[in-house]
Amino acid sequence: MTNALIKTENLSVEFPLGGGLFNKRTLKAVDNVSIEIPQGAFVGVVGESGSGKTTLGRALLNAVPITSGSASYDDGEEQFDLTKMSATDLKAYRRRAQLIFQDPYAALSPRMTVRDIIAEPLDVMGLTASREETDTRVREIAAKCRLNLEHLRRYPHAFSGGQRQRISIARALACNPRFVVADECVAALDVSIQADILNLLKSLQHDMGLTFMFISHDLSVVAHTCDFVVVMYHGKIVESAPTRELFAAPKQDYTKRLLDAIPSLDPDHRIRA
Amino acid sequence: MSLIDVKNLSVQFKTDEGLITAVEDVSFSLAPGEVLGLVGESGSGKSVTAKSMMKLNPPNAIYAPECRIDLHLDSGPVDVMALKRPRDMEIVRGGAISMIFQEPMASFAPAITIGKQMVEQLLIHTDLNKKQAKDLSIEMLDRVGILEPATRFNQYAFELSGGMRQRAMIAMALSTKPKLLIADEPTTALDVTIQAQVLDLMKDLVAEFGMGIVFITHDLSVVAQTADRVAVMYLGRIMESGPVREVIRHPAHAYTRGLLNALPKLDDLDAPLTPIPGDIPSPLERPSGCVFHPRNPELKPGSRYETERPPLTEVSPGHFAAIFPEDVPGQP
Hints:
The structure holds 2 protein chains of 2 kinds. By secondary structure, chain A is an alpha/beta fold. Chain A has helices at residues 53-60, 87-96, 114-125, 131-144, 161-173, 191-208, 219-225, 243-248, 253-260, and strands at 4-16, 26-38, 42-46, 68-74, 79-81, 97-100, 179-183, 211-216, 228-233, 236-242. The relative contact order of chain A is 0.16. Helix content of chain B is 30%, strand content 24%. Chain B contains 11 helices and 13 strands. Chain B has helices spanning 46-52, 86-89, 104-107, 114-125, 130-143, 149-153, 162-175, 192-209, 220-226, 244-249, 254-262; strands spanning 4-15, 18-30, 35-39, 61-63, 68-73, 76-79, 97-100, 180-184, 212-217, 229-234, 237-243, 312-316, 319-322. The chains are: A alpha/beta, B alpha/beta. Chain A binds chain B through residues 48-49, 160-163, 190-196, 198-199, 217-221, 223-224, 243-244, 247, 257-258, 260-268, 270-273, and chain B through 41-42, 162, 191-197, 199-200, 218-222, 224-225, 244-245, 248, 258-266, 269, 272-276, 279-280. Chain A: Residues 6-259 form the ABC transporter domain. Chain A: Pfam families: ABC_tran, oligo_HPY.
């Protein structure tokens, strides 16, 4: 039995929608979600837009305030209660938990070299003692993400979407995190690049012992990369199961509807919604 | 009789860094009622090809002198390349040809009601009066499955959900009864369930109106679901074209095979995802010979493809691939 790295119970995130002093209206983006993410797992979260999958990911990174319920992180060395985080806790937690963004064109500063982009988290967190140490670390992580070391001096505009996403992954992994939330990180990429990035994430998971929460609206991508799938709808978890089980025998109607809507590559198997 | 014939289309863009080739020697025709899928990765020239049919490319686009686009209408043939004045182009822009764009939020003006925008284009392209245009618009909104069309008519784009907006866009594009509909990634920004609905709707409308559709997408499974024929593009050239079944079941070009191998398949979760090696080259460093040769894992060094441009060779009836005749795979 592996330990749960992330554990939530009845986690809710609400956003205020305005309204008066006494009739405050709120939007429940995440509604009573209880989930356990075991160490080393590759967990997929799927759902349509507005289903709360991104908010759940951000709540687990302590990037949006948690309204109620409990959420905790425990990697065996350090523990955090995500509902009660002091500024010092948050700094320490950022070293353990990182985010990979969707759009590699928007996520990288055009005015920084690739080396500086990857080095920034190391500098900000004060993880390296000298410039030489930073450089060594940047080179290590760049090599792991299959970036050409000659490219470190260049600026992001010189790179294609796939290379940019590799830079963005290298930056997220520079501080040696344990838990990584990848939010639609292949949605903006072409299929051949998508395959490359998915393979890279899988190999990094094994090499660095990472735990991934992989947020995606694309069920076939999730089916190929994740060990475990959580289906969300309107902020709630509709169904969660090991990938094979879920795709072979979905239990909930909503999951079935989602699976049926995936366009098939077989021209003779045309579906009607 | 075909609806549109595109012959030897080449488009270059003049930029500060030099001339960039976006489309090179692309030819295809489309019959009424036929759906042609244009597939390719970013930078493959599929959108530029589509926009050329309406001469919608930006002013720095240079069309090669030998290219011809002929549109065959009931009223007679139209030579699209010869159209110069904006007034003349009304025939193709919104008249005989309509276009649906990827991002429905960006395609509607945010401060004008959906209805006003629908009526405006009908007044330009048809002889209807305001009242008739309004009635037709509401009828079209109803046809594409929008509930309470009369209410929606008076609403703004932001008041509609993504799927609704794309439906309204389709209703608007079809209200002028175009002969040809160009759909540029119409479902890419939508959720799978809504994508399935929009695809169904488009199929129904083709059957009903009998128009031709050029469907641009990067998603081969969407093409498999909608198109009759497909053209696979890479760096501005057609790599392979033919009936959709043939191309997907028996791809003759290494690039098409590469795209298919990179796609996650639901019926075989153990199949490895194989990316196409290398990256798309910079548009300023266009490879010689076959544009795909630097990334083609099936080629041996020194092959003809490095220097010679392969012709489109017929591999089976109606199925063409940019390969030399000696490389045509054994017939299945």
